[in-house]
Design brief:
The complex is a heterodimer of chains A (about 220) and B (about 350). Chain A is an alpha/beta fold and about 220 residues long. Chain A is built from eleven helices and six strands. Chain B has three domains: about 120 residues; about 80 residues; about 120 residues, Histidine kinase-like ATPase, C-terminal domain (Heat Shock Protein 90, 2-Layer Sandwich). The longest helix of chain B has about 60 residues. In chain B, about 25% of the residues are buried. The chains are: A alpha/beta (about 220), B alpha+beta (about 350).
């Protein structure tokens, strides 16, 4: 896998590069600002771009804007956005952008849990989704209010729904909940039936269906 | 030419005035000589002199009016001059008209009253009570300006602190968590399980510290407010609140950071109150700007009865009043509690 990194803090940039190299991800270039992202994506055609939200010169949300611009130019580019805080607005904008490339939006501190982080990196690079559990929790909490279909889920199904919305595969969900793959499949089928969603093929489409549902019922 | 160089004597060939003075003198003398030759007892020549001198006085006054720079002060002087001419004519007419009781006292009194009123109007700023008022107004101006300046500086400093937290401590903690995570991953493969658990514990502590720092930064200056403005921040608050919230915003320009922050915290507190006292009740948030005022309205459908003197609302009121704004909490019949803040925003 060939990745590029856009991060203005040298400490984090170097740390990320070391971490990715230790896990056989080739970091082919790095940049420090939003313009740099477009430049290195054009120059290196990477599989994945890892981008900090706050970048020079204004230190607001240019990372998100640059990621969306890069995906518009290179629809198959996978983008993993790292941020010190999560905003569901940015999640929606990122998910709505681009074509087949994967999308990730994680809190920065998730890099500390190396295994889960590398799992998210691979998932996004493979065209999947990795949403921070804080975003998902907010969506579920928000849209769950007064929604009978969501209220009808068992606590376990609710956990599975949140993990699905994060973009995890059935195997990933089984591992997180310490249950068998078969049990997860049963929960998923039950959730989709209760929410009245058609069973989706593919993990990314499943995430989109769940998120679309959560947004639509708001 | 005169209007352009009113004070240059070389540019003022007073030939017209000079001619008039000469003509008046000659005419006056001729009339006087005729009066002497006719041997009349009554000094009728005085009327001629009065007319000639009055005309001269009017000429001089008009001349001044034309030359002096336009403005209230000139108008005032011309008016006083005209009054003086009319006043001077009265006793002369009395003298020439055979004296008797001093009737010019009445017109002179009226003229003096008019002159005094004019003077009072023109010099009103020198009146002692008006002077105190003006000083007070100037002071209020200065205080308003310096206070809003201080609050602006404060809002900017808070945003800088938030940024410093993000760029400083937060970045170091993330780097720390990342290193601990890498160490943990190596220990996973081959290492002492006790050491591995210690490292994992340390990594989780670092992660918790980052989360706490994030909540702190959000309380100081919410990033989405700085990034996307008030409407987006209010929507984010609505999503985080425990009630179904709809936000409608009609905002022209972005208000100053200090005004934006105050409005944000009004929405935050009102939503928190609504979620606490009438959980689950729908809440609508309206943000509008009109005539350099930002109006924030948060209305819940909880039936009303909120306590307007709660500590949260009192703190909010201080915050809003510090910006010269107003905060009102009242019941809306058949709906619920309305929290309404008006904040002036200087363009």
């Amino acid at each position: 896998m060939r990745a590029v990194i856009v991060e203005d803090h040298a400490l984090l940039r170097e740390g990320l590069i070391s971490l990715l190299r230790e896990h056989d991800v080739e970091v082919v270039a790095h940049a420090e600002d939003a313009e740099g992202l477009l430049r290195i994506v054009r120059g290196h055609q990477p599989d994945l771009a890892i981008v900090d939200v706050r970048l020079p010169p204004t230190f607001t949300d240019e990372g998100v804007r640059a990621a969306i611009a890069a995906r518009a130019e290179h629809p198959t580019l996978a983008v993993l956005v790292l941020s010190a805080y999560v905003e569901p607005v940015y999640t929606a904008e990122l998910l709505a952008s681009g074509g087949g490339g994967g999308v990730g939006y994680l809190l920065k501190e998730r890099v500390g849990d190396v295994r889960a982080f590398m799992d998210a990196v691979r998932r996004v690079a493979d065209g999947g989704t990795a949403l921070d559990r804080e975003v998902v929790a907010e969506l579920v909490r928000d849209h769950g209010r007064g929604n009978s279909a969501l209220d009808g889920l068992t606590p376990r199904e609710r956990e599975v729904l949140e993990l699905m919305a994060e973009g995890r595969t059935n195997a990933g969900i089984a591992e997180a909940l310490v249950v068998t793959g078969g049990a997860v499949e049963k929960h998923v089928t039950s959730i989709f039936a209760k929410l009245g969603l058609p069973a989706s093929q593919g993990d990314h489409r499943r995430v989109l269906a769940v998120l679309a549902y959560l947004r639509a019922v708001g | 030419m005169h209007a352009e160089h009113p004070h240059d004597p070389a540019e003022e060939p007073d030939t017209v005035l000079g001619l008039q003075v000469a003509f008046s003198a000659v005419a006056g003398c001729v009339v006087t000589v005729v009066w002497v030759l006719t041997g009349s007892a009554e000094f009728w020549a005085g009327w001629a002199w009065l007319g000639l001198v009055a005309l001269l006085a009017v000429h001089v006054l008009v001349r001044y009016a034309v030359r002096a720079p336009a403005g209230g002060r000139r108008d005032y002087r011309v008016a006083l001059g005209a009054l003086a001419i009319v006043a001077a004519i009265q006793p002369v007419v009395w003298l020439l008209g055979g004296q008797g009781p001093f009737w010019p006292a009445w017109p002179l009194l009226a003229i003096a009253a008019i002159a005094a009123t004019l003077a009072a109007i023109v010099h009103r700023r020198r009146l002692p009570w008006v002077r105190a008022q003006a000083a007070l107004e100037a002071r209020v101006d200065v205080l308003t300006r310096t206070r809003s300046g201080a609050l602006d500086v404060q809002a900017q400093q808070l945003r800088r602190i938030e940024r410093d937290l993000h760029d400083g401590a937060q970045v170091r903690l993330v780097a720390l968590a990342m290193r601990l995570g890498r160490a943990e991953a190596r220990l996973d493969d081959a290492g002492d399980p006790v050491t591995r658990d210690l490292v994992r514990g340390a990594r989780e502590e670092a992660t918790a510290a980052i989360a706490e720092l994030r909540d702190l930064a959000r309380g100081i200056a919410p990033p989405v407010l700085a990034d996307r403005g008030l409407a987006a921040a209010a929507e984010a608050l609505g999503r985080r609140s425990g009630s179904p919230v709809t936000v409608s915003a009609r905002l022209d320009d972005r208000p100053a950071p200090v005004v934006e922050s105050a409005a944000y915290f009004v929405v935050a507190e009102a939503l928190a109150n609504a979620a606490k006292h009438v959980p689950g009740a729908p809440v609508s948030v309206a943000l509008t700007t009109a005539e350099h005022r930002l109006i924030v309205e948060v209305l819940d459908e909880g039936g009303g009865g909120a306590d307007a003197s709660g500590s949260g609302l009192t703190g909010l009121r201080h915050r809003v009043e510090a910006l010269d704004g107003t905060l009102v909490v009242r019941d809306v019949p058949a709906t619920g509690t309305l929290v309404r803040a008006e904040l002036p925003c200087v363009p």
